[in-house]
Amino acid sequence: VEKPRPRATKLPPVGEPLTKREMEQLLTAGEGRGVMGEGSLKGRLILSGELPHLVVVGRDKRELTFLLQGPDQEVLPAYVDHKVSVSGLIKKTTNHSGVVEVRKYSAKKPEVEEVAPPPADTEPKLRYLSPGEVSMAVAAGMGAGIKGFASIRGNLEMMGEDFVLVVSNGGTRQQVSFAIEGKAAVKSLRKHVGQTLQVTGVVDKTSGWGGRITAETVEPRPSEARSVSRDEMELVHIEGEVPTSVDVKLNHGLTVRLQEQPGATWAIEPTLAKRVGLREANFEPGPNGSPATREFFFTPRNPGSFEVEFFLAKAFTPGVVERSFKINVTVKP
Fold first, then answer.
1. Domain annotation covers residue 227
2. Residue 112: what pLDDT?
3. Is residue 208, in this structure, part of any structural domain at all?
4. For 161-181, what is the mean pLDDT?
5. Rounded Cα–Cα distance for residues 35 and 208 (Å)
6. Which of 5, 103, 260, 330 has the most CB atoms at less than 10 Å from its CB?
7. Could you tell me if 246 and 254 are in contact, meaning their C-beta atoms sit under 8 angstroms apart?
8. Which of UniProt's keywords are assigned here (predicted)?
9. Which domain-ending residue is among 221, 244, 271?
10. Same domain, 248 and 195
């Protein structure tokens, strides 16, 4: 059984600021266990066990590792290997590591050393991505900078006039998608929008949330059988951006249809998607040039009240939100 990973979404109340003495203890490897207070730390962001950690160089050049918690925990993995400074409640839980409840953070791209341009003929040869690299390319928050030849599968959507392949976590703010370019990105792809495609070509993952694929071939695949049949189900439907409250029966359905905007995509928090049972986030092109819509289909498996917030997030950078609205869902047994 997989143990639930520590997810801290609520921030604790503001504590006492750290004194100079406490800050020294905090930054000394081998002492300071139990010290806590408000302060800020700078370091390099790494992922460990899929959670963001900050590696801080303390006194005597010794490294300390702090787990980063708080509402930003979902977005921080996109800044792997960046220089990140965080401020918030810092707790030193062992003599060599601790936890930061992040209230504010800022990230700087790692500085690239100036390299003389290589002679023109030594262009790096494109290589086939290994299976491990392919799985990193389609995973959220990982594998930025991977480039090579591969075959990836996903659902075809459109962003304005451009084709986009969504390869994982569709409909959530950890969605990974690739813009399809190259000779296979032709108008005739329109008839496959909303279907599963296998796209082969040069994958270039520019950030943790996707990039582009220069497609050589595009093959439709039978869409995976829908995990949940909607027959025999009582469906509650919400049309458009209306903050509202609805009652849904346990194990029955809720559908929410929202109009897509060019350059942006509707999404919900991944943790909430699990809690409220998001089964599908279907992109549907509008008839005769009218705007496309996205339909979220939920089958709640847990009774209770949930506040489902829908974010209109910028495509490929889900941390940037244009606007959002909330629906209160009460799941009744």
1. no
2. 62
3. yes
4. 93
5. 34
6. 260
7. yes
8. Protease inhibitor, Thiol protease inhibitor
9. 221
10. no
Q: Is 92 within 8 Å of 28 (Cβ atoms)?
A: no
The residue among 282, 162, 157 whose CA lies nearest residue 224 is: 282
What total of structural domains would you count in the chain? 3
- Contact of 153 with 259, CB cutoff 8 Å: no
Within a domain: residue 113? no
State the pTM of this model.
Answer: 0.61
Task: Let me know how many helices (H) and strands (E) the chain has, helices first.
Answer: 3, 18
- Tokens linked to 7: 């997810």
pLDDT for position 225: 66
Closest CA to 327 of 258, 228, 252, 230: 258
207-253 pLDDT, tens digit per residue, is 999 999 999 999 999 877 666 788 889 999 999 999 999 999 999 99
User: Is the CB of residue 95 less than 8 Å from the CB of residue 33?
Assistant: yes
pLDDT at 4 over 60: no
Same-domain pairing of 101 and 138: no
DSSP notation for 201-241:
EEEEEEETTEEEEEEEEEEEEPPPPPSS--TT--EEEEESS
CATH assignment of the domain containing 36: 2.40.50.140
